Amino acid sequence: MEEIAVTSSSHTYKIVIGENIRFQLKSFLPKTYSSILIISDESVAPLYINDIRSNFTEEQVFQTVLPSGEQTKSMDTFYNVHTDAINAGLDRNSLIIALGGGVVGDLAGFVAATFMRGIDYIQIPTTILAHDSSVGGKVAINHKLGKNLIGSFYPPRAVIYDVETLQTLSAREIRSGYAELVKEALIADQEFFNLLLKTDIQQVTAEELQSHLSLGIKIKANIVQEDEMESGVRMYLNLGHTLGHALEAELGYGTLTHGEAVAIGLLFTLHVSENMFSKQIASHSLIQWLKENNYPFKLQQLDEHALLLKMKSDKKTVNSKIKMVLLEDIGSPVVKELTDQQILDFLHSFNRKLVTE
Ligand SMILES: NC(=O)c1ccc[n+]([C@@H]2O[C@H](COP(=O)([O-])OP(=O)(O)OC[C@H]3O[C@@H](n4cnc5c(N)ncnc54)[C@H](O)[C@@H]3O)[C@@H](O)[C@H]2O)c1
Ligand SMILES: O=C(O)C(=O)C[C@@H](O)[C@H](O)[C@H](O)COP(=O)(O)O
Ligand SMILES: [Zn+2]
């Protein structure tokens, strides 16, 4: 079992990574609670919700099980979960437990941030991707016009990552989660990037996976501790997301998984960076790896102007000027403002490059 502490502006919380720790939840909670609401989804609940409930024999425990998938991060679901919390009689001393991937984590965290102006919640991530979403306190729902446009910074009281739950993930979700690990490696750690590029992610052992997750989480935790509210270095965690989020919104939420969209966004970032800084960084090796691991990476027939418009709803945009996180090299991210024409030109040349791959 490994523990990593993260200090936020309101409190310090632990990320605990290990096998079977979903059965020891009480030992990781900061206090006792008057009641508990577990929020999960239709794929995760049948697998793990009873394990979570078995930790609480004395408390009143309620549960809300949501449809699986990105469309659940909506205003309607957010409102309905608040209704469930009110009907269950939750009070300011209640706890919300987010049991699931990033969708459940982001939504449940935002409910916790807003219910009675904020109550405690913990994250129990069950996807590889959620090593990222469960840490750092970004909680949100989507708007049709853009990803995560309605949300808050609201750190959890604990993150309990039982890696045993990852054994039931599909090949697609393994792929999706590894995209954010590649992102963290590109931001901060050449050696980690090299290691990932040697990895066949569908054959990874439990030990290797846990070690990759631990490396990724440490990169994320260090950044969010330094810049919780994203006024500086936290923007680096958005590598690949300016295009990634635009693709998710433009194609319709859930068409690509978040990680699939980020993977394309990372390739685009490398394409722009290599052109702007006139050097090879890693686009060739990344494209090979994405192919070997069956990532979808063609932009299809997407309208470049429509993508540009969606890219403008990125939270890094100020005065309608798009800012992208680029790489001067692996481990050396920078934030650069690009003109609309530059974005259109890069989208066009990127599209042409992908067609020949
Ligand atoms: N807050 C942040 O900092 C942050 C960071 C990264 C991503 N995100 C958000 O996270 C979301 C994506 O998260 P995700 O990829 O975990 O998606 P997800 O929550 O939709 O989970 C993916 C799929 O796997 C299923 N699933 C989850 N755990 C499972 C398990 N153990 N076994 C079998 N099936 C399981 C889910 O039901 C779902 O169908 C996006 O909305 C993204 O914007 C947020
Ligand atoms: O934690 C962060 O900061 C990130 O940017 C992590 C991203 O992987 C994540 O997808 C996040 O939700 C994106 O944030 P947003 O502010 O662009 O919505
Ligand atoms: Zn992301």
UniProtKB/TrEMBL annotation:
Subcellular compartments: Cytoplasm
Catalytic activity: 7-phospho-2-dehydro-3-deoxy-D-arabino-heptonate = 3-dehydroquinate + phosphate
Required cofactor names: Co(2+); Zn(2+); NAD(+)
InterPro entries the record matches: Dehydroquinate_synthase (IPR050071), DHQ_synth_AroB (IPR016037), DHQ_synth_fam (IPR030963), DHQS/DOIS_N (IPR030960), DHQS_C (IPR056179)
GO cellular component assignments: cytoplasm
Main subcellular location: cytoplasm
Keyword Cell inner membrane: no
Residue ranges occupied by any 3-dehydroquinate synthase C-terminal domain in the UniProt entry: 177-317
Cofactor, free-text remark: Binds 1 divalent metal cation per subunit. Can use either Co(2+) or Zn(2+).
Stretches of the chain forming a coiled coil according to its record: none
Any Gene Ontology biological process: amino acid biosynthetic process
UniProt cross-references to PANTHER family, sorted A to Z: 3-DEHYDROQUINATE SYNTHASE, 3-DEHYDROQUINATE SYNTHASE, CHLOROPLASTIC
Family: Belongs to the sugar phosphate cyclases superfamily. Dehydroquinate synthase family.
Record's protein name: 3-dehydroquinate synthase
Organism (species): Oceanobacillus chungangensis
